[in-house]
Amino acid sequence: MPVDNLVPTDLALRLVQDRADIDISGPEFNFVRSIRVFDVRYARQHESGRDGDCNRSATVVLGTYGTQGDFAWQRSSVTALPSAHEGLERWGEHCPGIYHRSVFVDWRDYEGNYGFEQVNY
Known about the structure:
With 121 residues, the chain is mainly beta. The protein has one domain (3-120). Helix content is 12%, strand content 40%. It is built from 2 helices and 5 strands. The chain has helices at residues 9-18, 30-33, and strands spanning 36-48, 53-65, 71-75, 98-108, 114-120. The chain has a 5-stranded antiparallel sheet. Strand 1 (36-48) and strand 2 (53-65) form a beta hairpin. The protein is elongated, with a radius of gyration of 20 Å. The termini are far apart.
């Protein structure tokens, strides 16, 4: 019997996209669950008005992987960004002008070593 007849291609692809196609619930796969994706869609801080009021606004979301590799987004904040993130170090100070957008991914490998990548856009 051809493999194509066992599971419709579109269903198999959807299953693989929604979660891992093998059991990754064991501790040996903790490195997958350690991956975090921070999407700083924007973070803006600037003075406005005669009184020099400081306006701050930001949209930050955090993506994480679940027990079986299922990925989900949730709301986050500038203050939740790891210290390795660059570009918002002066956030919350008097009111230096800041406009920042980035994607920051961090993880712990299978030996527990920390790693990260940041892309500003």
